Amino acid sequence: MATAKSKKGVSTEDKLRALYNLQLIDSRIDTIRTVRGELPFEVQDLEDETEGLATRLEKLEADKKSLETDVSDKKNSITESKALIKKYKEQQNNVRNNREFESLSKELEFQDLEIKLSEKRIKEFQAQIESKKEVIDSTREELEGRKKDLDIKKKELDEIVSETQKEEEALLKKSEDAAKKIDERLIKAYKRIRNGSKNGLAVVPIDREASAGSYIKIPPQRQLDVAARMKIIVDEHSGRILVDKELADEETEKMEALFKKLSK
């Protein structure tokens, strides 16, 4: 990778130090976000689950109320049928012929069947109500459990965010400031390499004759070129920008002191 045109008075070594500092800052930000881990997603999942259970409970309650209304309607129907039976029996005592008597008998039979059918339906509705009550109780219990879990997870997330938010904001500002000191072409290359890396590493030191995290040895001459700090060198295997271990240790020590200060 050819060296981009220098910003006035900025040496290649200074660029390498700036790039490695930027990497350390961005890696620190990554670590902070990793500490939060899956908590934001867990909170979201619990919120969705809680909302779903609340909606289900509301529907179950509405179904139970509807069944209770059905029971009430059937009881009213029985009361009406009994009133009609009383009326028809009284009328039978005053009939003038067999035809009227038979007609009233059929009405009495019909109302008796209506009562039996209503009683049957009441039993069915009451059985459904009892079943609904059981499901409502278990759903309410599950909902309360999820609400408690959600409160715990929210508290955990709030604590982590409150502990790290200030540091993260300060680091993001440091990252922006560090990027401004580096040539635009190098920044674009850094971001491209970082975005393509699973662990977000774009600038790495040579460790045990290989780029950090790799087991493929770098040729001795290449190692010497990196140590000379005369040009920007990319590892042909990992695709990452290389710095020598001494430079990395020096900058890591400086940045660790900064991180310690920001985390207070």
Number of continuous helical runs: 6
Low-confidence stretches: 1-6
Q: Could you give the order of the helices and strands?
A: HHHHEEHEH
How many domains would you count in the coordinates? Answer: 2
Shape, principal axes of CA atoms: rod-shaped
Q: What is the rounded Rg?
A: 40 Å
CATH arch. level architecture of the largest domain: Orthogonal Bundle
Outline the biggest β-sheet: 3 strands, mixed
What structural class do the secondary elements suggest?
Answer: mainly alpha
Number of strands: 3
Strand order of the largest sheet: 2-1-3
Average pLDDT, all residues: 89
Concise summary:
The chain is 76% helix and 4% strand. It has 264 residues and is mainly alpha-helical.
